[in-house]
Amino acid sequence: MKELLSFIENNQEKHLEQLKEFLKLKSISAEPEYKEEVRRTAMWLKIHLSKIGFEKTQIFETKGHPIVYAEWLGAGNNAKTVLIYGHYDVQPVDPIEEWNTPPFEPTVIDNKLYARGTADDKGQIFAHIKGIEAHFQTYGKLPVNVKLLIEGEEEAGSGNLDEFIANNKDILKCDTVLISDTEWYTFGLPSICYALRGISFVEIKVIGPNRDLHSGSYGGAVDNPIFVLAKMLTKLKDERGKIIIPGFYDDVVKVSEEERKHFKNLPFSEDELKKSIEVEELSGEIDFSVLERIWIRPSIDVNGIKGGYIGEGMKTIIPSEASAKISMRLVPNQNPQDITEKLSKYLISIAPKSVKIIVNPAHGGNPVITPIDSPGIKAAVKALEAAFNKKPVFMREGGSIPVTDTFSKMLGAPPVLMGLGLPDDNIHAPNEKINLENFFGGIKASAVFLSEYSKL
Amino acid sequence: MKELLSFIENNQEKHLEQLKEFLKLKSISAEPEYKEEVRRTAMWLKIHLSKIGFEKTQIFETKGHPIVYAEWLGAGNNAKTVLIYGHYDVQPVDPIEEWNTPPFEPTVIDNKLYARGTADDKGQIFAHIKGIEAHFQTYGKLPVNVKLLIEGEEEAGSGNLDEFIANNKDILKCDTVLISDTEWYTFGLPSICYALRGISFVEIKVIGPNRDLHSGSYGGAVDNPIFVLAKMLTKLKDERGKIIIPGFYDDVVKVSEEERKHFKNLPFSEDELKKSIEVEELSGEIDFSVLERIWIRPSIDVNGIKGGYIGEGMKTIIPSEASAKISMRLVPNQNPQDITEKLSKYLISIAPKSVKIIVNPAHGGNPVITPIDSPGIKAAVKALEAAFNKKPVFMREGGSIPVTDTFSKMLGAPPVLMGLGLPDDNIHAPNEKINLENFFGGIKASAVFLSEYSKL
To answer: Are B216 and B132 in a shared domain?
Structure first.
């Protein structure tokens, strides 16, 4: 083990340079104009995986962006198999003007590496790749069979992954799925996440008059689609922060008092949270603590809104239409399809006769919970302790990795969420970064995980 | 008079070609990237005015776009002086994809001329220019002294016009101000508008967290600026369509029952209005008729809203901010500054502690009423009757021409609103047009006006 960790320590500079190369590729999956760049990123990854020692590497085509797959099964039929999942695609970079350094020119400042994808998820998946390489370089082999599945559509909803997994169950067969796409509870406190929220999406368009109208010639007599949309949005939550879509909470599992007590023992400061995001007051369901609102309660947000004239200057119109992107975070046992349907029906029911509305449900993901006494989670505890010299804590996470649910259902393999990010990594926002100690420690944790998991 | 009208009839083709040339110039005043094109339009106009016979033409510089001025004072000191006002700038063309023909390539379809600015206001001001030219060509002179003031910032708020008028009162001295920037009550019914609504603008920005937050990691605990803005917007009007800004109606003059009765005599079909804009239900104050809501009652509209991710695909964020452009239409004797201030104060008072807000008041314009027995309006009645063979009706208008108030205050000259547009001209919207019979008739009306006004 010492040899393995030394190898990793002696190659930090090289690992950082390689990660930068990976980050320079603009693999924005949700924006069609980056399609070719996403493919280039997949090719880069395939070539890199071949170089470091995988015996088989392959690009799987999908209806969307390609999937990169690699395997090394040299440990034999009797050995355990770990499937490591991650994604090489990244979020869009808007608003670009708020970045301090260009999003695709990785820059180290104060031992932190800034670029789109550093934390979500290129940096985290690359730590695993380098952890595997360390085994190859040190021992000429891996302690377990390893399969790598790195998709290119996570930030666009993993629309083709479920089908891919369903069609390739034999290839992907494994004992556990190791994923690093979550973050630590806080700086300096390695964490294992045992539950994730699910997600539902709905886009709504409110259509009023058949064209933009002059607000002087019509104002006062014609319903304004922006007013209508605004009113509909205010009908999604009540004054106590509760979501008022009929049936929304029907399937929410009550969390035990014991678990809620555990959350209370974690260090938490409302003031620090407020300070870090610069708001004077938090919000949400008044009957739950802030951590509970994020971890064990479902939520609803408007991710974007657009309507009328939004350019410079003024344009005195009653706009023809207005639209909003709405997403909901779900908890066990809420079902995304069911929730999407409930919201869609509700929106239609509250729209006034003066407008037409179009409701577009998008992809969703189930909420996930993994037992904390599974072998994978035990190995992760040892790996993080060895890599960061600190016992990890168990936590939940408000975000979603829909694929974790797919793995557990289709492959029967429990997901292990060994995140390497930090809460201030600015994922999905300008100035995304990863702390270099987390990246380098992550390489160690990945390497140790494979060793520890082989023994359990 | 016959000779004059014949000249106009014999030159329609030429007049149309010249108007097309004028319309091709992209004089969008509100968008800074068109600054040079706006100037080129002013130069084109100056040269054209020199050519047709004005003895003096001049470009006046402002802090914004230039003003074009021309005069012919050959009628002498004892003759009356008419100041004709119009604007050569146009509205932005968004959403460009909804235009059937390119906005700056004037196209005749079914005897209608399509292009940005055809009705508002290039086509209307150009009718006056051709009416004047007809006098020069037919009689070698004009029946009255004529001053032409054509500004380039009407669609951006006429920000520098008041100052220009204040500084050039002697140059602009006149007996009446003739303006064609309004529309007929309906197709085939020439109309004189004797009252306009005023306008107030406020832009509001709601600022939540200091960056876009991941909606999974924060959703449920942090106020979403889009939700906050939506809620604030719903607090601007009550269920009966009444605006609930404190003090908003304080200065509204009650309209006489006689005048309201006159409105009832005008042909009006709610069904036709609904059909023309394709809505199933109209909206607004339930205690007033639809015409009254637009003509004699103030209104409030959101002209644009923006927040969060509005590109293709999904971005699961709690956005850092959201903003809206709000405008209000005002009636006598509401004061734009006062109303803007009342709205600004109200918005600040209803914002929750979880966000910061920035309120930016923009320019405004006073509502205007002109007595229908003034000489200018009498001449306009005769001019429209001669040009279109039909007695005109008197109407109000829901839109604003802030400058009418300036003229009446600073020059002591009553404005005469002899509009040539039609309600379906799509002004401020895609596919703006002018009916060619209105354009050609407008040339006659302008020519006759000058003759008739000289006699009164």
So the answer is: no
